[in-house]
């Protein structure tokens, strides 16, 4: 019987990065996932790294650390994460007030700068000048999240890690039962994203984590070339998450929708010319809830056509994944209260800007040196507040 120091469940960007960092501390690690390429939030990530967006001492520190890590990660992992710095264009709707929106971003670590309609269209020639009242812009990091996760996994395997495809069927104190047998470990950490809450509930454990159904259109390749990453300046997603997390109990009731769906119209193009158009966000409490894909795609195309008409016409495939979040826009990181060997690393609202430094800090703290920063994102903050 082989016993690992750590079992990590979930091989998206969170589980992959955490597994790698744990091996860098000398631990034996088993990374488990149900599929090598699941339709996950990592697979359909925009890839943006908003390291300019810190608004508190905590988030500014993490964003600063993330920028340094991402700049050096390809060399460290000996694989191309496709890291680059691009222009983020935050479009302002015609009915919105540019001055009000510019002021709303003033407290960010690097406040985006206002652009007139003409300047915005010079930066992104595909914009429809009639669909905006201007835009905000800032330099934005960008990677291919799926390739980055794979790079972490390969580096982990070259070290002291093992990667196994298996479905976890039961969580025990020092082991997990899977379709490939039982695996034992001194510590178990869940990096299952949106499925974390439901999985723990089946084991009699409750945590304050929630999820949205994120819907996008994936365009496999295109001769149309975006010059920027386009997103709305007035993103509704965070308001949606705040409203949907007010009633924790409703998330244990199937078939509920805590708050109406929103659509934040944006688009990004990767180095291989693949384009993602998104996104609709729904707070449906059933992770397997039925969604009208045809209507969702039509809504996405209609909304993006106001800003990027040529992009809206491109042939693509509607895709869907689940995205985890917490009630205060900070992740859930650390031990599950009352369960000494069980940990969570999930619920990241700004994942690519804070996952790498938190994974590194988590692994270092596991050697016995407390990290005051990690205490700010621990699960205890919700337990203490009831």
UniProtKB/TrEMBL annotation:
Residues 5-362 form the FAD dependent oxidoreductase domain. InterPro entries: FAD-dep_OxRdtase, FAD/NAD-bd_sf. Keywords: Oxidoreductase. GO terms for molecular function: oxidoreductase activity. It comes from the Bacteria. Gene3D superfamilies: D-Amino Acid Oxidase, subunit A, domain 2 (3.30.9.10), FAD/NAD(P)-binding domain (3.50.50.60). This is FAD dependent oxidoreductase. It comes from Leptolyngbya boryana NIES-2135.
